[in-house]
UniProtKB/TrEMBL annotation:
Gene3D superfamilies: Nucleic acid-binding proteins, Winged helix-like DNA-binding domain superfamily/Winged helix DNA-binding domain. Residues 226-283 form the Conserved virulence factor B-like winged helix domain. It comes from Oceanobacillus longus. Residues 148-215 form the Conserved virulence factor B third S1 domain. Coiled coil: none annotated. Residues 6-64 form the Conserved virulence factor B first S1 domain. This is S1 RNA-binding domain-containing protein. Belongs to the CvfB family. Residues 74-133 form the Conserved virulence factor B second S1 domain.
């Protein structure tokens, strides 16, 4: 068995040609390069950089088409396939697609990435020594991102979700700033790996930013009011909510904050469409 480390890029020497490609050698260990794993013809004794991995039979395979992700090197990798019982496969720039295990994905599959989404990953190994793509931890992201300037306040930013949990979603923006989207600042929960666009609502002292995916208050009030009306119509004209209701109950039902809920109620009151009695809201 080879002692050359898979998941790494190694300087190697072309030792001979074979029908299917070339044999590369380093420190007495061989690795096969198939013809479709090199961008040009190789010559015996030529020095090349090669990325190493194992095929399904455990054979050591090399490619001189270098990936953008390898051991301890992080970059974005596009999701190409989703398999609920396994995880998702990503393209790191070579023919072999790498698995991101379901153990490293959110518990709820509804926020798993879809094909075309991107994950910020490096390579690692499972307990059997097989290569996996591993999503970046918060510590790694902190090392990779840039300090956000105060001038970003109220600006529009775009980024990719690298973390999602019950409190909200975290993104890396296109300018490599870390952004956090609180659950009250979105109408639907974005997927891991989804590309989103929002506006900066706070630039924090630690150089990160808070981002909202919701429209401005004056623009969101109408749509929030429509949501409340639809709930009323679907509930025979009455809902057990008022401007005194619990913020968590409001968020769980309408996916808006209590402040936004109260603004929308106020609009509906002024329009004469609703009334409140005994902690409930009624459709007129």
């Amino acid at each position: 068995m080879s002692t050359l480390p898979i998941g790494t890029i190694q300087p190697m020497t072309v030792s001979r040609t074979i029908d299917t490609g070339y044999v590369l050698t380093k420190d007495g260990h061989d690795a096969l390069v198939h013809h479709n794993d090199t961008e040009s013809e190789l010559e015996v004794n030529q020095q090349v950089d090669a990325f190493l991995y194992n095929d399904k039979k455990g054979n050591l395979i090399a490619t001189t088409i270098l990936p953008n992700v390898w051991m301890d090197v992080y970059d974005w990798a596009e999701v190409v396939e989703v398999m609920p019982h396994l995880g998702v496969f990503v393209n790191i720039g070579i023919a072999k697609e790498m698995l991101v295990s379901k153990d490293d994905l959110p518990f709820f599959e509804k926020v798993w990435p879809k094909p075309g989404d991107k994950l910020f990953v490096t390579l690692g190994k499972d307990q059997k020594g097989r290569l996996l793509a591993l999503p970046a931890t918060e510590g790694i992201v902190a090392r990779e991102v840039e300090f956000a300037p105060e001038e970003l306040m109220k600006q529009t930013v775009s980024g990719t979700v690298y973390l999602t949990d019950k409190e909200g979603s975290a993104i890396i923006t296109t300018d490599y700033h870390r952004g956090f989207i609180h659950r009250t600042e979105r109408k639907t929960e974005p997927r891991l790996g989804e590309f989103v666009q929002g506006r900066v609502i706070d630039v924090k002292d630690d150089g990160s930013i808070n981002v909202s995916l919701r429209p401005l208050k004056q623009d969101s009030m109408e749509s929030d009011a429509d949501v409340i009306l639809k709930h009323l119509e679907a509930s025979n004209g009455v809902i057990p909510f008022s401007d005194k209701s619990d913020p968590e109950d409001i968020l769980g039902t309408f996916q808006i904050s209590k402040a936004a809920f109260k603004r929308a109620l106020g609009r509906l009151f002024k329009e004469g469409k609703i009334e409140q009695r005994e902690g409930k809201t009624y459709l007129k």
